[in-house]
Amino acid sequence: MPLEIAPHAGFCMGVRRAVKAAEAIAEEGRRACTLGELIHNPQVVEDLRARGIVPVAAPEEAAGQLTLIRSHGVTPETLEALRRQGCEILDLTCPFVGRLHQIAAEAVAAGRTLIVVGEREHPEVIGTVGWAQGKAIVIASAEEAERLPWMARATVCAQTTFPPDRWEAIVAALRRRSGELEERCTICSATEERQREARDIAARSDAMIVVGGRHSANTRKLYETCRAICPKTILVERAAEIPPAFANNSSERIGMTAGASTPDGALKEVVTIMTDIENKTPETPETQAIPEEAGENDFMKEVESTLVRFRPGQTVVGKVISVGADEVIVNIGGKSDGLIRVADLSQKDVKEGDEIEVEVVKVNDGEGNVRLSQRNVVNRKAWEALMAKYNAGEYVEGVGKEAVKGGLLADVGGVRAFVPASHLSNGYVNKIDDFVGKDLKLKIIEVDEKKKRVVASRREVIREENEAKKAAAWERLEEGAVIHGIVRRLTDFGAFVDVGGVDGLVHITDLSWGRVKAASDVVKPGQEIDVKVLNLDRERGRIQLGYKQLQPKPWDNADEKYPEGAIVEGKVVRITTFGAFVELEPGLDGLVHITQVSPNRVAKVEDAVNVGDIVHVKVLHVDTEAKRISLSIRQALEDEAMDDLEAEGLDLPQEAAEAAEAVETVAEAVEEAAPEA
Ligand code: F3S
């Protein structure tokens, strides 16, 4: 006789939570009362009564006692009445029901018409209507929905144990009766799961046993569901109720399920009986569902294993089945649901149906719930990822969160990191606040595995990156190469140029072919220039660069630029006893002999010109080899005077022209005799 037990048979999360809490109180030896029977199971109720947890019918009977609110919940007025009676209240309302209350209250507060789909007399529905300030319409069928008046804005929700198939039909009818219908399906998935499993098992079984209290709507519904599929279905509260004929039918496949208020003990009792029967049954080829070699203990272990299968610290994947204001309920497989408190949630937008990874914090939080944490899983993963990067010597990305004493707190992938002020930058940091909200590339420099904290440095990242840049720049550099750079700073002796992560110096003498007083005469900070690598001293890390080397040399084509006879402008830059040096362009000076500085004879050069004067000079001779240019101010003046006369239509007297030529010849002779400029 193969026996198949539904995975979700027995207590649901809400009921288990309530029963465990009551048992814990009884174990402490405290007396208490429950407002109504704690669950729809007479054995459990009697057992609790014997241990001092007594059901009462009204708040007045509970006066002054510790009062347990069952998973169905109660109205706010009832809670108030209990308070008035001086009761200490332990509210064991199932979180799913609590959510239903919240939906009801919010809908009414928003001025919407509230429709509760469920049994009007069911305590859960009564409680829900109370949370809606009595302003709810309760319906249980599509026909009732069709008869409702037109509603502009309505919200529909359901008793948590309402059959899902009927809900659909009712909502379809309500859509036709409302301009704007908010559909809040509050049917508990535990009920739905249980019903689905019952249907499936009933379909493949020859007989079904439904274990549970006869007054439990949930158990009755299970029974009806199974019976409709498998006519040989019985409902029993205790194992003793199993008819002998039913039990002794050795050849049939038996399915078993239990209502949400059926205690594990009752379920085990039935399983034990059926196992006994099976053990007395001669072997048949159909007994594979219970391994032949498995004894009673093994089989019971199998049953137990569906009840508790977790250990603290274990990571499991669960499905979110309810999202409440304070906690989220997650089904973590089989018949196990667990609670995540809001503080233990890392994903704030979690919604029903989401699959999330959670860690088992406590197998039993004292109220019969498995306590779960999503944050622990996320934190652990974040820490592991961070440590992997740390061990690999990789940098991490963080965001500055808060300036604290001595540094900055940063979030590094969900892990808190402290960055000391001295490690925030490679320079002095004036305001730590400037780093708050900023993305930071950091290097972990210290780890506290126990406290799961790290110390990180941005300065180290900057230093290492600069080192790497320098090394790469040195790799690229070679003497003679022409490279692009940016002028970073100027000094008395030249300009420092960044050539890709490393600075080289252009000495002031290498800035220009001409005479340069200050580097700023040639370049400015921030200016981008091409430079030639003149010398590399890898040992001392010095780079000598040249700028003028990339400029044309002024003497190279001086004879073309300044042909003899041309009159050009220049600046007197130096005066000697034998003449004045006139700069035609940077790096190109010519000499005006003392005899050529003025049309008149002068005793000394300064009588004609001074340093800084801008003068017109005539090019007398250019020697590019010897780098000499002879110039004449006097002839320039005379030529210009003659040009003026010609322009006025006057002939130059023959004698005057001859005299000028003679003077020129003399001047040349004098210049030849002059020392080199
Ligand atoms: Fe709660 Fe669902 Fe049970 S609503 S009491 S967990 S059936």
How many separate domains?
6
Q: Which radius of gyration do the C-alpha atoms yield?
A: 50 Å
Name the poorly predicted regions: 281-308
Bound ions, cofactors and other small molecules, one mention each: FE3-S4 cluster
Widest beta sheet: strand line-up: 13-14-15-17-16
Structure description:
With 677 residues, the chain is an alpha/beta fold. The chain is 31% helix and 29% strand. The protein folds into six domains: 3-91, Rossmann fold, CATH 3.40.50.11270; 95-187, 4-hydroxy-3-methylbut-2-enyl diphosphate reductase, catalytic domain (Cobalt-precorrin-4 Transmethylase, domain 1, 3-Layer(aba) Sandwich); 315-373, Nucleic acid-binding proteins (OB fold (Dihydrolipoamide Acetyltransferase, E2P), Beta Barrel), CATH 2.40.50; 379-463, Beta Barrel (OB fold (Dihydrolipoamide Acetyltransferase, E2P)), CATH 2.40.50.140; 477-550, Beta Barrel (OB fold (Dihydrolipoamide Acetyltransferase, E2P)); 563-673, Beta Barrel (OB fold (Dihydrolipoamide Acetyltransferase, E2P)). The strands form seven sheets. A five-stranded mixed beta barrel has the order 13-14-15-17-16. A hairpin with a 2-residue loop joins strand 19 (407-412) and strand 20. Helix 4 runs parallel beside helix 5 (123-131), helix 8 (189-204) runs parallel beside helix 9 and helix 11 packs antiparallel against helix 12 (296-305). It binds FE3-S4 cluster. Residues 12-15, 71, 94, 96-97, 160-161, 188, 190-191, 260 line the site of FE3-S4 cluster.
